[in-house]
Write a structure and sequence with these properties.
Blueprint (H helix, E strand, L loop, with lengths): L7 H13 L1 H9 L10 E6 L4 E6 L2 E2 L1 H13 L3 E6 L8 E4 H17 L7 E5 L4 H13 L2 E4 L6 H11 L3 E5 L2 E3 L2 E3 L1 H8 L8 E5 L13 E3 H6 L10 E2 L3 E7 L7 E6 H15 L7 E4 L6 H13 L3 E5 L10 H9 L3 E4 L1 H10 L14 E5 L5 H11 L6 E4 L33 E4 L5 E2 L4 E7 L9 E2 L3 H9 L6 E9 L5 E6 L3 E4 L2 E4 H8 L5 E11 L3 E10 L6 H15 L8 E5 L12 H8 L16 H11 L3
Parallel strand pairs: 4-17, 6-7, 6-8, 7-14, 8-11, 11-12, 16-17, 16-18, 18-19, 19-20, 30-31
Antiparallel strand pairs: 1-2, 3-13, 4-5, 9-10, 14-15, 15-24, 21-22, 21-23, 23-25, 25-26, 27-28, 29-30
Helix pairs in contact: 1-2, 3-4, 3-10, 4-5, 6-7, 9-10, 12-13
The chain binds 5'-O-[(S)-ethoxy(hydroxy)phosphoryl]adenosine.
Length: 634
């Protein structure tokens, strides 16, 4: 039994079975993969330490399941269709056989440069096939990849390299994103100025731009490939060995390294990919995410390759050369399944339907949405203008920590409703809890979203800091994984994710912690204190609003604003720039000194009429002042 879902009745049956007998259910699914040795036990877990292990003592290599396994029957099938940033440049099509060869070659390059099982390798690359090759080559030799999104600054790379203790870094000289040329190697050089961990930097020549190569440390990808052999046996990994680290933002402190392991992640991404999107073997799947975020890891790289799918990978941005680019790509490659983010939909919706008109989108049969709540207007626009009202929309809810999709319609099989993620996938046991931590069993309620039982793709730890994993996800509600999201369950039992209940923002789908932005702003020598909150933004979903207290010198506020934005860009990346900066004389604090963010959020949202009880504040007059000041920014 492979538990592929073909009808809604089957979904209901399979779901029921998966909850009654999770171990039997996941073991059956896992038996469809290639293991060097099967597990002794399916699951061992507790959510208190937490300790979660799937497929105990099983041995495998995920790349054999992504590549080798498909060679006999599907070696000539296209694994990756690569669409360049510039539509006039050449498309690349890479077969499974070619990808296998490329991965083995590069895996040997890694080995001959000293990489071995368990090493952490940082990857800072553009959206080119070599990024996928680099990730799989790491996995082939048992090294742990830590991909850093190409929009992150030098400082962010440095922090991640240090936290993970990376010895090697893989990058490219540069890349065009839209009309802009980015010198990636230059950013890496800056990141490594004070570093003494990284021994080798492997550089892929992508644009042939002028860069500096540091003797001994920096080597060219193409030189190394020349002298490598194509034969690379896969390292045999334990099911619970680490596959990768991916840094993500939380409510507090620096981003944490979410850890996924080999066996469970493999089973979960493959099962969710093939079921949610109802992938059929001749279809072309296009996920517009960047591989630097989890969506790209799970649904450009691992899920599709594990399923032997053809996946389209796009180097550029949806608005270059114009806002019709995604539709042009769909037409050009006859894409069947499009998986994108609400922020992209909203920005293309704003650009107008003239960019869609005349494009043949008839190849599309299924649509997906991910990364943030999709508002009804965007949902309808997507449905009507892109899906021609005939493509089911899978609004997929999940997180970096969950490894894969947890709540979503099964495309074309289960019901959909605008702005609802609908129903849990098999094996997923959601719970909505109230502030007292009690689970609410009835329908028509809302609260915090938790998951009561492990699934194979759940994070195992946060790198080098297990305690942080415990306090972040497993301490708030006893014996539950706490998602950080608010959620409602309607009268029919359908789930709607209402957004983060903590201090995490989603700006154009990018996950950003308010604390990170505050820490960056506070580095400015004139800043005494800052508080950052989100406000509703018609395209980005959320925008960043910073309330900043400066010391009292005569400050030119425009200049100061620019300097603050520069610091945030330098510390995090330009995607984390505050949209609004309001200088204030104080922040609303409780007598114990805690910032009342609830009040700031309301002000940022423009809801200044109903701020709730402010009498417990240390200085209630400050609220009036902030309110007045906010009006001039609106
Ligand atoms: C939000 C992205 C509503 C949510 C895969 C979650 C969503 C956070 C949806 C995780 C959705 C993701 N509807 N909200 N369909 N998908 N989110 O780690 O707040 O970048 O907690 O993973 O995105 O963001 P992350």
């Amino acid at each position: 039994m492979n538990y592929q879902i073909n009808t809604f009745e089957e979904y209901l049956e399979i779901y029921k079975y998966s909850i009654e007998n999770p171990e039997g259910f996941w073991a059956e699914i896992a038996s469809n993969f290639f293991w060097h040795k099967k597990w002794d036990k399916v699951l061992e877990w507790n959510f208190t330490e937490p300790e979660i292990k799937w497929f105990l003592n099983a041995k495998l290599n995920i790349t054999e399941n992504c590549l080798d396994r498909h060679l006999a029957d599907g070696g000539e099938k296209t694994a990756i269709i690569w669409e360049p940033n510039n539509p006039d440049e050449n498309v690349r099509k890479i077969t499974y056989k070619q990808l296998y060869t490329d991965v083995c070659l590069f895996a040997n390059v890694l080995k001959s440069n000293g990489a071995k099982k368990g090493d952490r390798i940082c990857i800072y690359m553009p959206m080119i096939p070599e990024l996928v090759i680099a990730m799989l080559a790491c996995a082939r030799i048992g090294a742990i990849h830590s991909v850093v999104f190409g929009g992150f600054s030098a400082k962010s790379i440095a922090d991640r390299v240090e936290d993970a203790g990376c010895r090697m870094l893989i990058t490219a000289d540069g890349v065009y994103r839209g009309a802009k040329l980015l010198n990636l190697k230059g950013i890496v050089d800056e990141a490594l100025i004070n570093d003494n961990l990284i021994k080798k930097v492997i550089v892929f020549k992508n644009r042939g731009i002028n860069i500096k190569m540091q003797t001994e440390r920096d080597i060219w990808w193409h030189d190394e490939i020349e002298i490598a052999t194509t034969d690379c046996k896969a390292e045999i990994m334990d099911s619970e060995d680490m596959l990768y680290i991916l840094y993500t933002s939380g409510s507090t402190g620096k981003p944490k390294g979410v850890v996924h392991t080999c066996g469970g992640y493999m089973v979960y991404t493959a099962y969710t990919f093939s079921n949610v999107f109802q992938y059929k073997s001749n279809e072309i799947f296009f996920c517009t995410a960047d591989i630097g975020w989890v969506t790209g890891h799970s649904y450009i790289v691992y899920g599709p390759l594990l399923s032997g799918a053809t996946c389209l990978m796009f180097e550029g941005i949806p608005t270059y050369p114009d806002s019709g680019r995604l539709w042009e790509i769909v037409e050009k490659h006859k894409v069947n399944i499009l998986y994108t983010a609400p922020t992209a939909i909203r920005s293309l919706m704003q650009a107008g339907t003239e960019f869609v008109r005349g494009k043949d989108l008839s190849s599309l049969s299924k649509l997906g949405s991910v990364g943030e709540p999709i508002n009804e207007e965007a949902w309808h626009w997507y449905n009507e203008n892109i899906g021609n009202s005939k493509c089911p929309i899978a609004d997929t809810w999940w997180q970096t920590e969950t490894g894969g999709i947890l709540i979503s319609p099964i495309a074309g099989i289960s019901p959909t409703k605008p702005s609802y993620a609908m129903l849990p996938l098999p094996g997923i046991q959601p719970a909505i809890v109230n502030a007292q931590g009690e689970e609410l069993f009835e329908n028509n309620i809302s609260g915090d979203l938790c998951i009561k039982f492990p699934w194979p793709g759940i994070l195992r730890t946060t790198y080098n800091n297990h305690e942080r994993c415990r306090t972040n996800y497993f301490e708030t509600y006893k014996n539950m994984y706490y998602t950080g999201d608010g959620c409602l369950r309607d009268k029919d039992g359908f789930y709607r994710i209402t957004g983060r209940a903590d201090d995490v923002l989603k700006v154009s789908g990018h996950r950003i912690g308010t604390a990170e932005v505050e820490n960056a702003i506070d580095l400015h020598h004139k800043v005494i204190e800052s508080a950052v909150v989100g406000f509703p933004h018609h395209i980005k979903g959320q925008g960043i609003y910073a309330f900043v207290i400066c010391n009292n010198e005569n400050t030119d506020s425009d200049k100061l604003r620019t300097e603050i934005i520069d610091i945030v860009t330098k510390e995090i990346g330009s995607f984390a720039k505050p949209e609004k900066i309001q200088f204030v004389n104080g922040l609303p604090k409780t007598r114990s000194g805690k910032i009342m963010r609830r009040i700031l959020r309301k002000i940022a949202e423009g809801e200044t009429e109903n701020l709730g009880d402010t009498t417990t504040l240390l200085d209630p007059t400050i609220v009036e002042e902030i309110k007045t000041g906010s009006l001039s920014l609106a």
